[in-house]
Structure formats: structure tokens, C-alpha cells
Amino acid sequence: MDFTLQVWRQDSPDKEGRFEVYRATNISSDMSFIEMLDSLNIELEQKGDTPVSYECDCLEGICGTCSLMINGRAHGPGACTTTCQLHMRSFQDGETIVIEPFRAKSFPVIKDLIVNRSAFDRIIQAGGFVTVRTGSAPDGNAIPISKIDADLAMDAAQCIGCGACVASCKNSSAMLFTAAKVSHLSYIPQGQPERMERAKKMIEQMDEEGFGACTNQAECEAVCPKGISIKFIARMNRDFIRSSF
Amino acid sequence: MILLQQMLINNPIIKFYNSSIGKKIVMAVTGLMLIGFVVVHLLGNFQIFLGAEKFNAYAAFLKSIPGPLWAARIILLTAFILHFTTAFILSLNNKAARGGSYKNMATVQADFASRYMLESGVVIFIFIIIHLLHFTLGAIQPEFHDLDDGFMRDDVYRNVILGFSNGPYAYIYIVAMLFVGLHLKHAFWSMFQTIGVYSPALTPLLKKLSVFTAVAVAAGYISIPLSVIFGILK
Questions:
Q1: Which residues in A lie closer than 8 A to residue B117 (C-beta atoms)?
Q2: How many CB atoms lie within 10 A of CB B205?
Q3: How many CB atoms lie within 10 A of CB A96?
Q4: Do A206 and B20 make contact, defined as CB atoms within 8 angstroms?
Q5: ipTM confidence score
Q6: Is residue B13 part of a domain?
Q7: CB pairs under 8 A between A and B
Q8: Tens digit of pLDDT for each residue in B100-157?
Q9: pLDDT < 70: residue spans in chain A
Q10: Structural domains for chain A
């Protein structure tokens, strides 16, 4: 398969970026999107050009490192997929593919397609944890948790913090991420003592980072590689109301 | 001065409003009040189909209770100002949050109404000013305002008939009501989501109710100028 790629190139955070057009040729339909970019970079290096910078790590869709806005969609076409799990057979032979970084004021570009997502780490640091007494491991089933709550907590806990929600939100809102991180602890007994404080602090940090606000359009839910539902945003809002007064 | 500043920063209401979610909740609650008004106002207006006698008596009744009338007006105006200014603050924050702009940005599932809430809101705002100048204050078409119906009452019935039969006002009204419907289609269920009401059973129902409310309100209001245009009301 052959593709025309329009790739965002930006040398450093303070330099102006631009689109460069490249040809990706002899691409196997079984290649992942990352492998396709790798093969482009091999070619660029052979020509003496600077390879395109992008991020990836686990290559199995669970680490949240890969990003990319592909043809206007975070992680490209298809539901519940990360860029590393996206295969070139999802595209038409000869197609032009536009590749951009995840854009948000709170996600500044570091280089080319790599953005700084430390804002998410700071939201977690603000309250996305439970304070526990350390020591020997507690008994396995000492704290009973209902199957329903355990499942809901796991649904929220699936968030890999990739930032696709922010990238695809018309308002660059981080509410799906924050809601998932607030909610997964709010379903389980261990998360109860700090529940209100957690919601309050994480939301404060989210606002401080300069993310936008939710307008209930659910674009985040549509592109989330883990299919996290906006029902967690409603739950976070509930905790916010209770923690405010 | 610093003490006052400290007091303001720590005030729970100000803290609440300063938060993005706090502002969203203000949008939802004031929106609910405005929807309440839109529905009650529509039910009141429907009395025009009962004839001039009933409709003028209804208008006279409202004027005979200035206390509750003005209380309702002040509450509504407050809700309206809060809804409108908060919408602008949120929109500006949201625009600023993007930073750069995308060359390509797909829309996967956001519906049309949800993407143009600010625009439909601005159209409704302009319409409200025209509407108040037209029927409430009589600054537009003053010759049809303050007519006497022969019983020492304002002839609001004839005011409506003449107002809609002359000039472009019936058509402005119809177009504006389409925007109200568009706004409500997203607003109604969105309001519940924002204040934290979500359940797998309830939310799909609320979305359906949202479409129903939008269509019913828009069609309800439009039926009045249409009836005047087609001579059903005269």
C-alpha cells in the first residue's frame, strides 16, 4: 500500500510548526500505524533527513503513550483503538493521511508529534490516590465489594491517560480523564474516606491546568481507546456538588 | 484589602462559580428555570385559541398581581443574565484551552444542536429583545399596543393578531422558535447530565424527552403566528 502523509513538524516548543508532505511506499496492510511511521523514518534517515518524532511504548494498547490525531480523529478511525493497535488495512490504498499532535494549550508540543501530557500527572498528584497504611498485605477478601461496584470501578480504572479525550473534545476538556480517575476510587470502600476531598482537589487542578469545560457532546467517549462512558462525568459532577457545600 | 480578597477567595459560592464544573451547574440550573418559563409562557399563550375574551382576561389577571409578576420577572432576569454571561465566560475559556488549531478535526457523535449552542443562544437573545420591544413594551408597532378591548382592558388579543399580520414579525418569531427548539434539543438532557443525573435506563429516555420537548415547544409557539397567517386566528 502507498500513502501520502501530511505530517506536523515542529523543531521545538517555541518554534513555529508546519506540515510536511511525505510518501510512504510499500506499506504492508498488516503493519500498525507505528510501524508505518517507523518505515517512513528509516527512509528519512537514509536520505539524511531528520526522522519524525512520535511517542509509543507498550505497542499493545495499554500504556497510553502513543497519541496522534489521524485524519482529525484521536487514535485514528475505529472505536476503542490506540494508534499502536491501528492497522494500515483501516485505510484506503493511496489515501492522504493527515497526522497532527494532540492539541491543547495544556499539552504543549515538545517536538513534531510529541506533546507534554504532564498536566495529567499533576491532576493525579492532586488526589488520584488512596492513603493506606503500609505493612503486610491485607487478607484477600477482607473487604467485601459488590460485583456491580467492582465492575464499575474497573470500567473507570481502564483509563490509560492517553489524552485522546482532551484532543478530540471541541473544548479541550479533560473531564473524561479526571472523571475516570475520580470515579474508579469512588466505587470502592478504600476510596471513601478521601472521596470528596479527592474530587475537589483534582477538579481544582484540572481547572488550573487550563483545560476547557464539558458541553456534553461525548466526542471524548467516541474516541476513548478504552470506551470510557461520560456517565463518570455525571458522577464526578455529583461529587463536586457534594464537596462544595 | 487583602483580608477582603481572602474572604472572597474562600467564599464557597465564589469558589463554586470559579470552577469550570460550578459554572456548568449554574448553566444547568438557570437553564432549567428558563425552560420552566418557556413552558409556562407557552401554556399561557395557548389561551389565545380560547378567544379574545379569555386571553385578555388572562393578561388582565397577570397585571392585577404585580407582586408575583415582578418577583417572577426579577428571578427570570437574574437567571437569564447568569445563563448568558456564564455561557460567554465558558466559551472563551474553552476556545483558549485549545491553543493551536487542527488542520483536520472530525466530529464523531456530537450532534448538530450541541455544536451550535452558543450561536442558537445568541439568536434567542436577540429575539428576546425584539419580542420585548414588540409585545411587552410596544416600542415596535406602538399603534397596536395599549388598545382597549371595550371592557377597560388591554386588547392584547388584537395586539397579537395585528402584530403578526403586519410586517415581518410573524416570520421572525417562527424562525426564532426554530432556534429555541434547536437549543432545547441539546439543553434538556444535557442539564441532567451536568447536575449528575445519569443512569443507563434514564439517560436514553431523557434524550428522547429532550427531542420531544424541543419539538413540542417549537411547534407550540409556531402554531400561534401560523394560525394568524392562515386566518385561523383573527
A1: 215
A2: 11
A3: 12
A4: yes
A5: 0.91
A6: no
A7: 142
A8: 899 999 999 999 999 999 999 999 999 999 999 999 998 899 888 878 877 778 899 9
A9: none
A10: 3-110 (3.10.20.30), 118-244 (1.10.1060.10)
